[in-house]
Amino acid sequence: MLKKIAVMTSGGDSPGMNAAIRALVRVAMHEGVETWGIYDGYSGMVEDRMVKLDSRAVGDIIQRGGTILGTARCEEFRTPEGRAKGLENMRRRGIEGLVVIGGDGSLTGATLLVKEGFPVVGLPGTIDNDIWGTDYTIGFDTTVNTVVDAINKLRDTASAHGRVIVIEAMGRHSGWIAMTAGLAGGAEQILVPEMAVSIEDTIAKLKQSRASGKKYSIIVVAEGVGNTAELGKRIEEETGLETRVSILGHIQRGGSPSVFDRILASTLAERAVMALLSGISGVMFGSRNGAVVSIDMEDAISHKKTLDTSLFRLANLLAQ
Ligand code: F6P
Predict the structure, then answer these.
(1) Residues 209, 217: contact at Cβ < 8 Å?
(2) To pair with 241 at 20 to 30 A between CA atoms, which of 31, 59, 171, 200?
(3) Is residue 296 annotated as part of the catalytic site, yes or no?
(4) Distance between CA atoms of 181 and 22, rounded to whole angstroms?
(5) What is the topology classification, in CATH, of domain 4-139+257-302?
(6) What is the pTM of this model?
């Protein structure tokens, strides 16, 4: 049985990462195992910046967004020399296993360590919800709630002025945030990178909705679709409707984690520690149909999670 493990957060931060760190440390303590926190993801591993965490060190963080350990992207870790340094730094401290909390890139890094014989378990931490094998990633629910809150507010002013408001949600490669928040926020149109819609279609739909008596319109666009400012400009030019663009940006990554994200983070973290301590490595824990499941990490990074297009159909139907 392992006696010392480490945890790191890596890639873009997501609300609930702190709840996961807290749960990892406390479950490990309960099992008589020491936990070390690695600062700033793989950078801290390569540069030997780590701290011993006890129960008190992870107090008062369950409600905080961001990550107390910091996060970063690390070029050096991509090289075999960088990884050797990182492994040496952990082994020197007697660290025998690692939990990596992050998105696709972070889990890819984790599989490289597994290949070099170091035990690693992953947790899906990203607001984008784009990791294969899990229905939800830690942080997605909080972000979607933030976006829906913004839509509600923008709806007030859109309605007051009879305008079109184009709202850009995060998601460089994935439309999960835009689609889910768009459906929950009652958007008239939702544009995502996974489903190409022509500008002509968007404009035609807007004209139809005005003809049907709608006084204002909310369009939610995922960042990955392209140039949202340009889209807003073309909508105004080609429909004659007063149009404003609101790019929500990094406000979507912050904030206190929702109940859902705190529970998800805590339950996945518990399973991650117990797995690592019983000698399991190379897996990620996720949630499927409400149950915690273990997914091969290579599978998780090599498959692309597809968008649930039935939600689109529903969003379109409800937008009439
Ligand atoms: O991966 C999460 C994410 O928030 C994406 O949705 C977004 O495109 C990207 O990170 C932004 O990254 P950065 O904070 O490096 O600008």
Answers:
(1) yes
(2) 171
(3) no
(4) 28
(5) Rossmann fold (3.40.50)
(6) 0.97
